[in-house]
Amino acid sequence: MKLKLATVSLAGCFGCHMSFLDIDERILELVEHVEFDRSPLTDIKRVGECDIGLVEGGLCNAENVEVLRAFRTHCKTAVGACAINGGLPAQRNRLPLRPLLEAVYPQGVPDDPELPLLLNHVHPIHEVVHVDYSLPGCPPSADAFWQFLTDLMSGRTPQLGHGLIHYD
Ligand code: SF4
Fold first, then answer.
1. 3-state class of 124 per DSSP?
2. Phi, psi (5° rounding) for residue 39?
3. How many CB atoms are closer than 10 A to CB 155?
4. For ligand 1, what atom is nearest to the CA of residue 13?
5. CA–CA distance from 33 to each of 56, 133, 139, 146 (Å)?
6. Residue from 7, 54, 82 to probe ligand 1 pocket by mutation (most atoms less than 8 Å from CB)
7. Where does the chain have alpha helices with state H?
8. Are 63 and 110 in contact (CB under 8 A)?
9. Which residue lies with its CA nearest to atom 5 of ligand 1?
10. How far is the CA of 168 from the centre of ligand 1 (A)?
11. d(Cα 132, Cα 145) in Å, to the nearest integer?
12. Torsion sign over Cα 138, 8, 22, 14
């Protein structure tokens, strides 16, 4: 039976998804063993019951929190990359939000009610949900994604060997 895999991008830059796709032709082997659920790769908007959830990015607004909670409810395994510490978006945490928004939007801060409410700080996902495994790196390499997924598909505890773990 195929594992179900979902991926989501929260407050990230899509670099982790791009790196994941760098597994190149190995994706053909991957789809023999996994079925994609919600993901920017499938454009499915709601997550179903899944075995593996890959989370890119931290939490910068109320919608991110809602999406992450739903994701975690349906995925037995959640994985964070930039999600580990907030990453680049968290650089704004040193500055108060209001003056920052006024500097970025000198013509007036957008206040459309459809826009998600910004959080005062960008948070790593482990502050809101339990995280089973973390893939460090900005982004983690394609080989790291591959090692991680093939370990899980084989029923092994993921072990990233030397050269696959980096923090830049
Ligand atoms: S970890 Fe790096 S590449 Fe991944 S979403 Fe964050 S900033 Fe982008």
1. coil
2. -175, 150
3. 6
4. 8
5. 22, 20, 24, 13
6. 82
7. 15-21, 26-33, 62-74, 97-104, 142-153
8. no
9. 12
10. 10
11. 15
12. negative
Report whether residue 80 contacts ligand 1, using a CB cutoff of 6 Å: no
CA distance 130 to 148: 18
Nearest one of 162, 161, 149 to 19, comparing CA atoms: 149
d(CA 129, CA 106): 36
Taking only the tens of pLDDT, the chain with its 168 residues reads 899 999 999 999 999 999 999 999 999 999 999 999 999 999 998 999 999 999 999 999 999 999 999 999 999 877 776 788 888 899 999 999 999 999 999 999 999 999 999 999 999 999 999 999 999 999 999 999 999 999 999 999 998 888 888 877
Q: Distance between CA atoms of 45 and 94, rounded to whole angstroms?
A: 33
> 162 and 106 in contact (C-beta within 8 Å)?
no
For ligand 1, mutation pick of 9, 10, 56, 165 (most atoms within 8 Å of CB): 56
- Which residues have C-beta within 8 Å of that of residue 155, sequence separation ≥ 6? none
